[in-house]
Amino acid sequence: MLDPELEADGIGPSAISEALAADWAARRGEIADQLKGASVLVVGAAGTIGAATVRQLLPFAPAKLELVDIDENGLARLARDIRSRGDDSAIGFNALDFAGWPGLALAEAAGPFDLVLNFAAVKHVRSEKNLFTLLHMIDVNVVRQQRFAAHLASRGLARRHFVVSTDKAADPASFMGATKLLLEAAVFADAGGSAAPRVSAARFANVAYSSGSLLESYQQRFAAGQALAAPRDTRRYFISARDAARICLLAQLTCPTRRIAIPRFEPSSGAVDLADTAAGFLRRQGREAVFVSSLEEATKRLGEPGPGYPVLLTPRDTAGEKEIEVFRGAGEGAQPLGLAALEGVIPAPIEPATLKMALAELGRLTSGRSNATPDALASVIQGVLPGFRHIAAEARLDDRI
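Given the sequence above, the corresponding structure tokens read:
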């Protein structure tokens, strides 16, 4: 069933949530057989999806569970939560950069692993705001992912390797989406050879109330007595963190190597207007949304008595924004996975030599060994992903409330 909190907000299609629940019930036994007594490495374990997946993993009693995240505070919160639930499993909490030398050394020392789940990512389009944050995004989402995948494959450190992608990887309109499409291509390229793992991925849309998300900002702003904000005429599809975790575990189980799991439905059928999510959140607080068009009006409304609460509607004019999600891009094929909620994507072909050259050049540009500019980065990416069309704009999310 749909998460009660999301249901109260009027978010998300119940059909896909119910289909996913049915798939989870039908395949749970196979996942239990796979994970009981297994050795598992979770990268990006402190993030919203990573932590939710760890919580789904624990009841299956893996013999070894190594958790890696560069966010040591997030790992501390996760450790406290797990131990407070009375779980005494043998778990390693490792505050590391997964693709730095210590992270690679940990994978080799603690491996081999039956399953590696990789959630590490720079996930916000707002990181395209300047050259330096863009370089960091490409470094984390592409260069380091390729380095890590090659390390696993060359040393036989994983039987299965799963990575999280995004709906924005389909016909990417942002650098972030393009880096995720390159992530898929890079890790799939290292899935050859007898020691290489079975590699799969999943694309899904927004996880409601995830860290740094618009919906999380509703909670923070309401608690601080600040106006809420949402873009006009923008629709998004939401799932809960629990369902995101289950998608990941079902995908790694059912996807053949070099395949990507996506939801089996048209996103427009379950998408909700972001203004409606703000109104739903306020209803749950016993308040009523009052939509305004300026910060001055929002501030004025905050001082007025009554149940009304201001929601500032902003234009949809920032870089990389799409009106609605797309899960399968041009040139990509479909493949059944035997699931009601998910189907597979067959990636569009990329010439291996072209991909290798692009990854090498991005590695040079992000390391400082070559002069990097946004145009140079875009040119390299378009050379390997001809369909990449960046939606540029002067407006930036960081300039808005």
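The CA atoms of residues 79 and 85 lie 10 Å apart. Try to locate this feature in the token string yourself.
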